[in-house]
Amino acid sequence: MEEKKVIVSKEFIDIFKNFNVVNKVDEMKSLSDKELYLLLTVCLDKHDDSQPTVVYNFQPFRDKVMEIFDVQDDKETKNELINELILETGDKYIETDCIVDDMGNGLPNPLTKEEVRDAKISIINSDN
Q: 101 exposed, middle or buried (CB, 10 Å; 0-12, 13-18, 19+)?
């Protein structure tokens, strides 16, 4: 069986990488619906939702997040895009292991708490 791959944009990768560091809501709104659902799914899987920035980035997309949770709870969805993503990436759920950049590289690991702290300090210091 051929391994499935879903190529995402550089913007997707940047938002994912910085999802737990800074407000990414405006950038998320500029993604295609397909990439937005993929991003929300992978961020639900990989980011710590006890971090305020992560929660902030999810809030405007609460309805979409709830749709994703429903599918993960084995509920059927009438959302055609979610059904297409399930077919494209997995068999019952939207699988995130197959997400790659345009070079075929998998997603980077989310930043650790220490790396998030360092990134925020760096942002604050660069404003001077």
A: middle
Whether 1 maps to a domain, the answer reads no
- Burial grade of 105 (CB within 10 A; 0-12, 13-18, 19 or more): exposed
The count of structural domains within the chain is 1
6 pairs with which residues across the strands? 99
Domain with 34, as residue range(s), is: 6-126
Residue 34 lies in a domain: yes
User: For residue range 88-123, what is the model confidence (pLDDT) as tens digits?
Assistant: 998 888 999 999 999 999 999 888 888 988 988 998
pTM: 0.90
HEC assignment per residue over the chain: CCCCCEECCHHHHHHHHHCCCCCCHHHHHCCCHHHHHHHHHHHHHHCCCCCHHHHHHHHHHHHHHHHHHHHHCCCCCCCHHHHHHHHHHCCCCCCCCCEECCCCCECCCCCCHHHHHHHHHHHHHHCC
